[in-house]
Design brief:
It contains seven helices and 19 strands. By secondary structure, it is of the alpha/beta class. Keywords: Disulfide bond, FAD, Flavoprotein, NADP, Oxidoreductase, Redox-active center.
């Protein structure tokens, strides 16, 4: 789908990224007759793929309105269809460069070295999301949703009375492990070092939990099982000894990385790379540029909170544009 012509005729709202945040923003902006243009990402991209992280999720049971649950890709397709129904123009393309120094703002697709942007917009909503850091093992993406997960809040319920492994040694891993003991019969924390990186309070909370055990100086080398996870091939980094750990669930908790490289030098970021927005708002420090979803949320990281912030971004963009060009 071409976006030709928008460099000469700036659009009211450009939305960079999809997922629950971007597509909710598109729905609200389209219903406000702002004719948003959405750059949803590329199918070949791991950092900004159409539909966001839910495209790698199977059953979603905690999104309101779906009492029987819904498949992640199906949920995102419904979001997309609804946005298109109200007039959003969705392009399967990835932004390669932005210029927020002057309005209308410039957005490049494809080669970032081109002198003129592909698209210009009076306001921009950034919703490029974040990605869970993974181990990079064979069949990793294939196993997500089949015993492998990166979100205890999302998927812990599916592992009631099962033995679960959690990979990691920071606060996130301890928080996930403690949460999972609400469901699991046993949680084994696998850490590549002999001491945790977690804060003392989180560490002690995990040590005090009788359902949590630790495997130190250990790394995972292979996911076992055909259609679903049945165990892990693990290796002791000191002795080199390999063994099998029989688990039916495994949660990778080694951190998240926001997809913000595109905005380096353009938007303010926290030390961890997440975009900074004003309190109780999606406004960035750049007038007319808003950020929503996991690209600015390093705490909740849920589909429903991302969708809520997408709604906020669209409403704030609409009010911003109205203040500039009353209709």
């Amino acid at each position: 789908m071409s976006v030709d012509g928008h460099a000469d005729r700036p659009v009211e709202v450009a939305i960079i990224g999809s997922g629950p945040a971007g597509l909710t923003a598109a729905i609200y902006a389209a219903r406000a007759n702002l004719s948003p243009v959405v750059l949803e990402g590329e199918l070949s991209s791991t950092s900004n793929q159409p539909g966001g992280q839910l495209m790698l999720t199977t059953d979603v049971e905690n999104y309101p309105g779906f009492p029987e649950g819904v498949m992640g890709p199906e949920l995102m397709q419904r979001f997309r269809d609804q946005a298109v129904r109200f007039g959003a123009q969705v392009h399967t393309a990835k932004a390669s460069r932005v210029d927020f120094s002057t309005q209308p703002y410039g957005i490049w697709i494809g080669g970032p070295d081109a002198s003129e942007p592909t698209l210009r917009a009076w306001s921009v909503i950034v919703s490029t999301g974040a990605q869970s850091l993974m181990l990079g093992l064979d069949r990793e993406i294939e196993m997500v949703g089949h015993g492998l997960s990166t979100c205890a809040t999302c998927d812990g319920f599916f592992f009631r009375d099962q033995h679960i492994a959690v990979i990691g040694g920071g606060d996130s891993a301890m928080e996930e492990s403690t949460f999972l003991t609400r469901f699991a019969s046993k949680v084994t924390v696998i850490h590549r070092r002999d001491a945790l990186r977690a804060s003392k309070i989180m560490e002690q909370r995990a040590f005090d939990n009788e359902r949590i055990e630790f495997m130190w100086n250990t790394v995972v080398e292979e996911y076992l099982g055909e259609s679903a996870l049945t165990g892990l091939r693990i290796r002791n980094v000191d002795t080199g000894e390999t063994s099998t750990l029989g688990v039916t669930g495994c949660f990778i908790a080694i951190g998240h990385r926001p997809n913000t490289d595109l905005f380096a030098g353009q938007l303010e970021m926290k030390e961890n790379g997440y975009l900074v927005t004003q309190p109780d708002s999606t406004k960035t420090a750049v007038e007319g540029v808003f950020a929503c979803g996991d690209v600015q949320d390093d705490y909740y990281r849920q589909a429903v909170t991302a969708a809520g912030s997408g709604c906020m971004a669209a409403i704030e963009a609409e009010r911003y544009l109205e203040s500039r060009h009353p209709r």
